[in-house]
Design a protein that fits this description.
Helix content: 25-40%
Structural class: alpha/beta
Bound molecules: pyridoxal-5'-phosphate
Strand content: 5-15%
CATH superfamily of the largest domain: Type I PLP-dependent aspartate aminotransferase-like (Major domain)
Radius of gyration: 22 Å
Order of helices and strands: HHHEHEHEHEHEEEHHHEHEHEEHEH
Largest sheet: 7 strands, mixed
CATH topology of the largest domain: Aspartate Aminotransferase, domain 2
Distance between the termini: 51 Å
Strand order of the largest sheet: 1-7-6-5-4-2-3
CATH architecture of the largest domain: 3-Layer(aba) Sandwich
Shape: globular
Length: 409
């Protein structure tokens, strides 16, 4: 019988035995690693003697974190990076060049939207925005220069869910890569390969870090895409076969842009991974309790959480995310003023911009994350002045409900 996620996470061996039999992977804070001879270091640089040389390129503690994710997900290759945004930008840049395009959901985390609309467009990389919950519209935008379809497994903060198998079928039909940002549904509740996702990108700052301990990101290659189909990875496919994507990432982006994860961060992320499954269970149970309470409260106009059976995305959440579609919800009050009054009365839930901290966090996206966008653009993205986003933590559910009840008075 397959062991649980947590049992497996706690028992993944280190790449090399520790001389002291430490039960935790040591934190290698070293910048450089020494070689016994000039011949050895030369062989290493020629790619003939694998070993760590310099921590911007690779590091033993970071490698152990990558190895754990690889074993737990069954992925082909895994790369850890300095943040979720560095994972997203490196993944896109390594499969595209000037004149290429990607097709992406419009409903995205604000900085991903800004990356596509403002940063990558300046280098001639076009993003064609679409509603990914309507697969036909996705297919209509694909042409010979399309290199990837990109979407969030649960969009932040709209909390919409696309049918991933349908997106995957379209990607396969056109030979383009399917990339999912699975920040809100990390491994332990979502097995991306089972639904035809080729590459997962993720902010491990959120669930995996163990509760806001550190900023980090992951790129997970499921090994399902034929890299010779993309002219930008074809040469690497000839040389590295199935490893083409991570090889190109490591050689042309990760190393050269300097977006490495530090050993110290990897240590937090390793511990966070071990606790991931139990933290998700607790956050999800709390989120359901709060969503149900808010749903029944007369002062609350609407509640959006795909774990509620009233959600139009409930069936997809059940199928794709074991019925546990993360622990982020949004809800609406009468007006922006009512939202601010409510937020200012909270004592346990904190006013902060992060997700999946151990503490419950609340934010008013309209006046914060999306404040630079014109009003009509915000409304088009489903960012309403009456809406708040709540990231539910691991406190006692009754304490959170009491906090909300008092603030809604
Ligand atoms: N993707 C999603 C869905 C996010 O919510 C975030 C951050 O909130 C990111 C990516 C970016 O992650 P990071 O802050 O680690 O760069």
């Amino acid at each position: 019988m397959k062991k649980s996620f947590t049992t497996r996470s706690l028992n993944i061996p280190f790449p090399k035995d520790d001389p002291h039999n430490a039960l935790a992977m040591p934190v290698y804070e070293a910048v450089a690693f020494e070689f016994d001879s000039a011949e050895d270091i030369s062989a290493n640089f020629r790619g003939e003697l694998p070993a760590h040389t310099y921590s911007r390129t690779s590091n033993p503690t970071v490698e152990y974190f990558e190895r754990k994710v690889k074993v737990l997900t069954g992925a082909h290759q895994v790369l850890a990076l300095s943040s979720g945004m560095s994972a997203i930008s490196a993944a896109i840049m390594s499969v595209c060049r000037q004149g290429d395009n990607i097709v992406s959901g419009r409903h995205l985390f604000g900085h991903s939207l800004a990356l596509f609309e403002q940063s990558l467009s300046a280098y001639g990389l076009e993003t064609r925005f679409v509603d990914t919950t309507r697969p036909d519209e996705v297919e209509a935008l694909i042409d010979e220069n399309t290199r990837a379809i990109y979407f969030e497994t649960v969009t932040n903060p709209q909390l919409e869910i696309a049918d991933i198998e349908k997106l995957s079928a379209i990607a396969r039909r056109h030979g383009v890569l399917l990339i999912a940002d699975s920040t809100i549904t990390p491994p332990a509740i979502f097995s991306s390969a089972n639904f035809g996702v080729d590459v997962e990108v993720m902010s491990t700052t959120k669930f995996i870090s163990g509760g806001a301990t550190s900023v980090g990101g992951l790129i997970i290659d499921n090994g399902t895409y034929d890299w010779s189909k993309n002219p930008n990875t074809r040469e690497f496919a000839g040389k590295f076969g199935k490893d083409a994507f991570i090889a190109r990432l490591r050689k042309n982006y990760y190393r050269n842009f300097g977006t490495c994860m530090t050993a110290h961060t990897a240590n937090y992320q390793i511990m966070g991974l071990d606790m991931l499954e139990i933290r998700i269970e607790r956050c999800y149970a709390n989120c359901m309790a709060l969503a149900t309470f808010l749903h029944n409260h007369p002062n609350v106009k609407s509640v959006h959480y795909p774990g509620l059976s009233s959600s139009p995305y409930y069936d997809l959440a059940l199928k794709q995310f074991s019925g546990k579609p993360g622990s982020i919800m949004t809800f609406d009050l009468e007006s922006q003023e009512a939202c601010f009054r409510f937020m200012n009365r909270l004592n346990i839930i904190r006013r902060a911009t992060n997700l999946n901290d151990n503490k419950s966090l609340i934010i008013h996206p309209y006046s914060t994350i999306y404040c630079d966008y014109p009003e009509e653009e915000r409304l088009r993205m489903g960012i309403r002045p009456t809406m708040m986003r709540l990231s539910v933590g691991i406190e006692g559910a009754a304490d959170l409900i009491e906090d909300i009840e008092n603030a809604l008075l």
